[in-house]
Amino acid sequence: MLKVFIPLSLATLILKQLGLLDLLAPSFAPLMSLMGLPGEAAITLLVGFTNTIYGALATAAAMDLTARQITILGVVLGISHSLFVETGILTTLRMSTARIGLFRLVIGLIAGMLLNLVMPELGGQALHSDVAEPFTWTGAFFQIGVTSMQIICIIFFITFGHNLIALWKAAGRYGRKMGVVLTVLGISKKAFAPWMVGVFVGITYGAALFYQYNEKHRLKHKDVCLVTLFLSLAHAMIEDTLLFVVTGGDFAWIFLSRIGIAILAVRLLAIGDIYRKFMWIGLPKERPGA
Questions:
Q1: Any idea where the domains of the chain sit in the sequence?
Q2: Contacting residues for 151 by C-beta, under 8 A, at least 6 apart
Q3: Residue 205 CB burial class (10 angstroms; 0-12, 13-18, ≥19)
Q4: pLDDT in the model for residue 102
Q5: What would the DSSP string read from start to end of the chain?
Q6: What would the DSSP string read from start to end of 75-139?
Q7: Are 183 and 195 in contact (CB under 8 A)?
Q8: What is the C-alpha end-to-end distance of the chain, expressed in Å?
């Protein structure tokens, strides 16, 4: 993680100090303005779309962004980060087609535009002002170090908590009781385990477990489609949200926006067999014998 975060943070600071970001900003200003973001924030989106969320966070941490702008970035990139890698994983495991990547990108951008319309100001103070005004390399390195340590702590405690739950003998029993959440969404309780892993740990782990369930024909095609859709919009919810909170984002807005979008989309497509009319967004095809 640090191999991505630190170099990209420094690269963004160098580009900023050289004035190159100011030259690029006007080209992206029209699209960025629809999301309430400065033109230079386009580099954060591009890095996030094509790379990991850590890379996007590194560029965002090096800019003068408000809490509101960081929050919007957190929602957009929470939905549509690592598109090449995560889409590749889903397609390799036959959990979706490549179009799911484009779907996530479009939904992420629309979510950012809608948030810009409804979200109030969240203080409005520029973040990392010690890095940008006045700028010193000492302050810049210090801020990068502090943010790196915060990220390490977040990941450590999330991993530690996950391992504790895995060792908890009663986890399975309580997990089955929580399966009622899926029935409200129109998904079978049998899909609870891969759904929960994907939502709280990440799409890579969730998809791997999901693949095992699907190979054994334990899930209906409708369950496969709806869980794929949900995880595409809302996965690694705790980790991804906290990573943007580190740089000043609002936890409630990021978390609830992503969860709300995923619930709304899945609940609508779960009515009857409506999901079959939306296979074009990248949902997996029905397998013979499923």
A1: 2-122+130-281
A2: 1, 5, 54, 57, 243, 246
A3: middle
A4: 96
A5: -HHHHHHHHHHHHHHHHHTHHHHHHHHHHHHHHHTT--GGGHHHHHHHHHS-HHHHHHHHHTS--BHHHHHHHHHHHHHHSSHHHHHHHHHHTTS--THHHHHHHHHHHHHHHHHHHHPPP---PBTTHHHHTT--HHHHHHHHHHHHHHHHHHHHHHHHHHHHHHH-TTHHHHHHHHTHHHHHHT--GGGHHHHHHHHHT-HHHHHHHHHHHHHTT-S-HHHHHHHHHHHHHS-SHHHHHHHHHHTT--HHHHHHHHHHHHHHHHHHHHSTTGGGGGGGGTPPPPPTT-
A6: HHHHHHSSHHHHHHHHHHTTS--THHHHHHHHHHHHHHHHHHHHPPP---PBTTHHHHTT--HHH
A7: no
A8: 39
Spatial separation of the C-alpha atoms in residues 247 and 244, rounded to whole Å: 5
Q: Quick one: CA dihedral 240, 246, 247, 252, positive or negative?
A: positive
Place of tokens 């997990």: 175
CA-closest candidate to residue 98, choices 79, 83, 110: 83
* R_g (Cα) of the chain, nearest Å: 20
Distance in angstroms (rounded) separating the CA atoms of residues 186 and 182:
6
The two structure tokens encoding residue 83: 């598109």
Q: What is the pLDDT of residues 45-75, one digit of tens each?
A: 988 887 778 878 888 877 888 999 999 999 9
183-211 residue pLDDT tens: 888 888 888 878 887 888 788 777 777 78
pLDDT of residue 97: 92
Task: Count CB-CB contacts under 10 A for residue 77.
Answer: 26
Cα separation, 51 vs 44, in Å, equals 10
Q: What is the rounded distance in angstroms from the CA atom of residue 58 to the CA atom of residue 72? A: 16
The amino acid occupying position 113 is: M
